[in-house]
Amino acid sequence: MADAACNEGSRRRIVIVVLLVLLLPLQTSCQQSTTKKLYVVKEEAHDSIIYSYKHGFSGFAAMLTESQAQDIAGSINGAAELTPTTRGVDLTTPACFTASISIHYAASYLSIKPSSVHRLHTTHSQDFLGLDYTKPTGLLHDAKYGDGVIIGIIDTGIWPESASFSDDGLGPVPSKWKGTCQTGQEFSSNQCNRKIIGARWYDKHLTPKDLEGEYRSARDANSHGTHVASTAAGALVPNVSFHGLAAGYARGAAPHARLAVYKACWGQGDCSEAAVMQAIDDAIHDGVDVLSLSLGLPSSEYYTSLHAVNNGIAVVFAAGNDGPAPRTVTNASPWVISVASATMDRAFPTVITLSNSTSNFVGQSLFYDTDDKNYNCCLFGTPETSNVTLAAGKIVLCNSPSSVSLISPTILPEAGAKGIIFAAYAFDILDAVESCGSMPCVLVDFEVAQQIKQSADENTALLVKVTAAQTWIGGEVLAPKISAFSSRGPSPLYPEFLKPDIAAPGSNILAAVKDSYKFKSGTSMACPHVSGVVALLKALHPDWSPAIIKSALVTTASNEKYGLPILADGLPQKIADPFDYGGGFINPNRLVDPGLAYDVDPKDYIALDCDSANSSCESAYKNLNLPSIAIPNLKQPTTVLRTVTNVGQADAVYKAVVQSPPGVQILVEPSILQFSLSKKKQSFKVTFSMTHKFQGGYLFGSLAWCDGGAHYVRIPIAVRPVHSSSSSFHCKHPTLWSPNTTIKHQKSKEAALESIIYSYKHAFSGFAAMLTESQAQTIAELPEVRSIKPSRVHPLHTTHSQDFLGLDYTKPTGLLHDAKYGDGIIIGIIDSGIWPESASFSDHGLSPIPSKWKGQCQAGEAFRSNQCNRKIIGARWYDKHLSAEDLKGEYRSARDAHGHGTHVASTAAGALVPNISFHGLAPGYARGIAPHARLAVYKACWGLGASCHDAGIIKAFDDAIHDGVDVLSLSIGKSGDEFFSSFHAVKNGITVIFAAGNEGPAPRTVTNALPWVITVASATIDRVFPTVITLANGSSSIVPKDNNWYEIHHSSCLISNGEKINASLASGKIVFCYSPLSVSITSPFGYVSLAVKAAKEAGAKGIIIATYGLDILDYFEKCGAMPCIFVDFDAVGQINSSGDENTTPLVKIAPARTWVGGEVLAPKISTFSSRGPSPLLPQFLKPDVAAPGSNILAAVKDSYKFQSGTSMACPHVSGVAALLKALHPDWSPAIIKSALVTTASNDRYGLPILANGLPQKIADPFDYGGGFIDPNKATDPGLAYDVDPKDYDLVVNCESANSSCESIFQNLNLPSIAIPNLTMPTTVLRTVTNVGQDDAIYKAVVQCPPGVRISVEPSVLQFKQGKKKQSFKVTFSMTHKVQGSYLFGSLAWCDGAAHYVRIPIAIRPVVSENYADL
Q1: Would residue 949 show up in a list of annotated catalytic residues for this protein?
Q2: Domain 125-344+479-594: which CATH number of 3.75.10.10, 3.30.1490.150, 1.10.510.10, 3.40.50.200
Q3: Rounded to two decimals, what is the model's pTM?
Q4: Is 224 a catalytic residue?
C-alpha cells in the first residue's frame, strides 16, 4: 500500500515505466536496476515498485516524486520524455495522488505520464439477440454455451455468492488456466469455483481514504463488476425479477464460460491506469481468451491492450456514456472492439389515469406499488424548481422540451411530492428512477405530457392515479434503437479508425447486483453482451484471431429490423449511422459464418506507432486491414487497400455491392473476387473521389461482398470531404371580451369605455380592456362571450441570401424580373417598428402608392408623418397596454429602438443599396427579397427584449386587414401559444407568414403551427467567414516575438451552471471553450452569449468556442475587436495537441474573410431552428418550409448588421410570397403556400440537406417541412392544394376529442400529411387544382415511410380545360405493428416533364393510442 503521508516537497506518485524492445519481456532485475539510478539503496528501489509488468510487456509502476520521474525519464538510453500532465491532472497541485507513466515504445524510446483515473461506464437481452437457451441449433448450442472459454472481467470485482456464479453442471477448470484465486477481506480461496476460476485485486496505488467502504479483496462493493460479469457469463437462474418486473430466467450471453476477475476499479468506479495495466498483464499470463473492460476515459486509450491482442486475446471495451454528443467515443484503438449501447424489445408501460379523462395515458417506469391511490395533479416545473409549498402532496409534471438530460427525481420526496411524471425524449435509462422506490416516477413522451397538462389546465381539481408498471415484450416495441447516452464517433484521437465497432443491448439490463438483481444502463452493460458472444465464437472457432472475430461481428451486424431502419435516440432522433453503431446491431447467429473476414497481422498494429503527420504513417493508418473505412479528410482521389480471407466455402465468387456516400464516388478494383482451396486471400483497392467539391461534414456509405447466397459481408464507410484544409391573470394585463359585456359589468358606460384600450372590428368583434381577475371571471360566465383569455407576451425570434435563392437582380428572366420586383404588393410587418432613415427604405424609382392602400402614417416621438414615403407607405404603433416602465428606452412611435423590426423589413423588401458590409465582411449590395414591394409597419413589440403583447398584435392584425396589405410577416411567437386571429387575415386573402421559433434542435418546439399560416424554419447559406488560427509550440524559436501571440486557457465555459472563467488563469490569454455535452443540447444562443461575456469579464484576449453548429456568428458582434471564433470539433484535437508535453501552445488569430460559393455545404437547417411536430397541433405537419436565417446581413438603424434566427428566415419567405402574389394576383394564400411547399428542395448538388443538431443528420419534414424554398420553381408548381376558408372555420370550431373533428383535421386540404397515431389502416382525402397547362396527366410517385404501406387511388390524374380539380385518397397501413416514432416519406404527382409536385408525410405508428414511445 502506498504511503499516504507525503508532503508537497517530497510527494511521491505512481510512475509506470514501460520498456518495449520488440515485445520481448525484460526481467524484474532490469526494472530494479533502472530505479537504482534514483535510489541509493537497492531495497529502496524494490520498495518503490507497486506493480510489475512482465507477461505481455516490460515495465513497472513505482511511487516516485515528480523530480524522480523526470530523472528516470532521462536515464534510459538518454531518450525519454516526461509528460507532466494529462487533461484534468496537474502535477503541481499540493495534494498527494497517484500517477503512472503510459508508454509508446520504440527500442530506445520511453514515454512517461501521470496515471489517469478512468471511470466505469455504467434478462431478456440474450433472447433478443437470438441466443435461445432451449434451441438445439444456433451459436449458443453449437458453441456448447461457451464451455472452456475464459472471460476476464476487469472491473470492480465480483459478489461470489450470487446465484449467477453457481458452477452447477460445469466441467473442470480449463487446463490452460494459469491464474490464481487471491484471497482478501471477506473473500476466501474457496469462493472461487468452476465458474469464477480466478480472482485478483490491485490496491497498492490507493490511500486509506480511497478504501473507505471498500473490501480489500476481489469482493465487489460497487456492484458494477458483478452486473457486468453476470451479463457476460452468468449461469441460468430461475425466478428472477425486479419487484415482479422482467420476470423469468437470468443468464449470461455465454452461460458456461468461465470467469477470471480482476478488480482494478474501486469506490465509485475509479479505475487507476496503473492497476488496469497490471490486470491486463496478469490476464495475459493467466490464459484468458476474452477481456471485457466496461471502463474508460475521454481522450485516453489503453495501448497496453495491444499486448493482449498480440497474445490472441480478443479485447472488448465499452464505447462510453457521453452521447448523444459526437466525437465522444472512447477506447478507439483499432485492435479492440468498441461497443455502443442499444435498447431491446422490452418496455415497462405504466398507466396514468386522470379523473376527468376517458382515456388512459401510458409512460414507462419501474413503479411496483400495487395499491391504487389518487393524487392531486399537477405542479408544473422541473425538479430543481419544485418547492415544498407547491409540490407537497402532488404529482409533479416536469415538462421542459428544451432539456434533454434526465434529472434524478430523488429530490422530490424532500419537497413532499407524491410522485413525478417526467417528459423525456428517450426511455433508455429507467434505472435512473429506481431510487424512487414505491413513489411513482414515470417517464412519458412530450405528446402525453402536453395532453396531461391540457387536462390539468381545464380542471384545477384534477386527480391522477398511477398504476404499477407491467412488462411488455415483443416486436411491437420498436427496437433496437441506439441509446441516447451511448457515445458517438468519430474518435477525437483516432478519426482514421471508424468507431464504435458494434452495438449491443445496454439499456435497462437486469443482472446480478450482490444477492439480488437490478437494472443498469450504459455501454458498460452492452460491452459484456459482446464479450459473451465473442466467447461463444471463440469456442466454435478456436483458431480465429481477434481480428477475424471483430470482422465477423462487424460485417454481419444488422442495420434494420422488420424492414425498419435502426434509429438513434438523441436530439433529434435520427436514423442511425456508423458513428452511432459501427457495423450495426450485433447478430450472433449470422456471425458464425461470415463468409469473408478482414484479418490483421499484429505487426501491422505495431507499425501504427509513428508520427501521424508522416506520409508513411498516414498510409499505415489508411490501409490497416480493418472491417471499416474512415477518411477524415478527403481532399483528392484517395485509394485504400484491403484484403479479405475466405473463412467459408472454399470455392466461392463474391461481387462488390457499393452504397456510396452522397456526393462521393467509389470505385472497387477488382469488383469480383474468386476464391478456391488454394486461394484463400484476395486483395482489392477502393478509390474515393468527390463528385462535387465542398467543405462538408461526414457522409456515410458501405461496401459489401455478396456471393448470391447466404453471405453479405458489409463494412461501414465514413468520409469527410474537405475542400481546403400556463399564464395567470394580473390586474393590469388586458383581456379580450365583447364590448357590451363589459358595459354590463362596469358601473357606467363611461367606465366601460375607459377600460377599453383596443377595439377589434374589421375581421371580428371584440376588444382589449384593463380588468381585474374577478371582473374577467364574471364576464367569462356570460353566454354571449365566446372566449376570454389574458393577453400574453410573445418574444421576437431573432445579404447574399437573395442570390442563394436564385433571385438574381440583374437577370432579365425569372420570378424577380417577371414579378416586377414585387411592385404594387404591400407587405405588413408586425414587429418592433422601423428606422425610416435607413437607405434600405429609400423610395427612389418607385411608382405611386398602390390605390388599394387604406392605411395611415401615425406620427409619434421622433417619427413624423412625412417619414412615410412610397416605400414605407404606412406606420402604426400600439402602446396603450404598456406601463411607463415598459416604455423606458423606447420611442412612443413606430420608430424602432430595438433593431429587429428594421432588420426584418429590409430583408423582406429593402431597396437596392450599394457598398454594404460589416467591417468589410460580406461586401456588396444589400437588398430585400421583393425590393419594389411596399412596407406597412405595425409596431406591436417593445423594449430591449422586444416583448410582443397579444393585445397589440391582435389590433395590428385587425388594422392590417383594414389597410389592405397582401402579405403579413410576423417574426414573433411563443411556445404553447397560437395566433388564431391570423385566421381572419387569411380569410381576407392575406398570406400570413410566421417564424417557427428558435428553440431547436429539440423536437416538438415549433411555434405558430396553425394550418392556414406558413411557418418558416431557418437554414444556412453558402457563405462563411473563415478565420485562420495559427498554432505554435511555446518553446519554438519560429514564433515571432510580437504582441499577437497568446497562450490558451482551457475552460468548459458552462456559465449557466454557475461557473466562472477564472480571471487569474484566463487574463491575457485566449479562452478555449470545450464542452461537448453543453452545446446544441438546447438552443446555443444562451451558451454562446454567456461565454463571450464571461471571457471579457475575465480579461481574456479572445475566445474560441468548439461547437456543432456555426450558424449564429452574430452573437460574436459584441466582441468588437476581441477575436471570438467558432471551431468544429474536428479542430479540437489539433488545438489540444499543438504544444509539446512540456509547454503551452500559443495561438495567433487572423481577421475573418468572406468565402462564398458551392464549396460551402449549404443549405443546412440551423441548429437553433425549432423542430416539429407541434405539441399543440400534431395533426398538421410543421414547419412548412425553410429559408435563409443564419448570419443574415440587413439594416439595423443607420448601419447593417448580422442577425440569426427564424426571425430572419420569415421575411425571406414573406418577400417571395409578395413576388408570387405580384405574378399571380388571383392565387389564394393556400395556393401560395402549396406552391412553396411542393416545389421546395430537399437536396443540393445531389447531396441531401442536413440538419445541424446533436448529432447532425439528414433533414426530415420536422426540420424543414417540404424543404428549402425554391422561388423560381414556385412560380409554376403545376398542381396546387387549395383550401376553402370555410374548411378553416371547421378547424377553429372543432374539439379535438371529437371523432368528426379528427376527420376534419385529417382531410384538411394541406400540402402535407401528418398522422400522429396510426393504429389501423387510415385513409386521407386530398384535392389538387391544376394551375399549369390545361391538358395534363400526372402519375403518383410514392416514397413510403419505412414499415408503412401507402396506397393512392386513383394513381393517375388527368386534367383538361373543363376539369381543373381532381380528388384522390391516400391509405396508410403498417407492414409490421410496432410502437414507434415518427417516420417520414412523401407523395409526388409527376407529369413526366417539369412538374414534380411533392408533399411531405409524417407517420407515427402506434399499437395502442396514448401509449408512450415504448
Answers
A1: no
A2: 3.40.50.200
A3: 0.83
A4: yes
